Task: structure prediction
Amino acid sequence: MDISTLIGVAGCFAMVGLGVISGGTSLGTFVDIPSVLIVVLGSYFGLFTFSSIPDAVGIFTTIGLTFRASNYNEKSLIQQLMAMSEKARREGLLALEEMLDDIESDFIKKGLRLVVDGTDAEIVRTLMETEMGQMQERHVSKIQVVNMWGTLAPGLGMLGTVIGLIGMLKNLEDKSALGPNMAVALITTLYGSMVANLLMIPWAGKLKISDAKESKVMEMAIEGVLSIQAGDNPRILGMKLLSYLTPVERKAMEAEILKD
Result:
């Protein structure tokens, strides 16, 4: 589980709650079912207009990904590709076939299968980059839906404010209706801001970062597969892949990976 997402969400709501309580107001004052209906559910159903039904329904699965810890294990990837490079140089590319079943990544396995089958390097690159591009398009599509919820929520909040004010102005004689209508008017704006700024925008940002990390690992895999096909020295292959990492990550792995 990605603890940082949990800390972020819990921390935001905790600070807002503490701010409310320390101001002498009860949290119950900010619970309003009509406002939830207008802002939370109203903006959610707006997603069905923006996207397809599977994407709108699947947004909760997408959001769930922000709570899942992803470990792309670049170090293991580099070491595995270096080992294959060494075997290919010593025994030939066909010798890699017996190692394919041990590879967990279907993406790398497909690339190496093409190499073992003697496919031209440019075709291997094109096929692998196309698969990576398709993955990125799927990610962008899902991230846009999350972003759209964050965009719609404040708008529905303003709509709820207008609805509340109209209800209040139409019932000025009824003193008992002033409070509930005013509550809807103001709390909807609060809910819209909270849905957008405490949830959807941070979640969309985290999904973008995850997409960038996964794309980088796939780029490393493409470079590694093509380097094996080209017959590069394992050390050269390792140096190529390490160049994708940040200086801090590179320094942490370099000594161990290139020790020989």
Summary: The first helix runs from residue 3 to 22. The chain has two domains: 1-31, 32-259. Residues 32-259 form one domain.
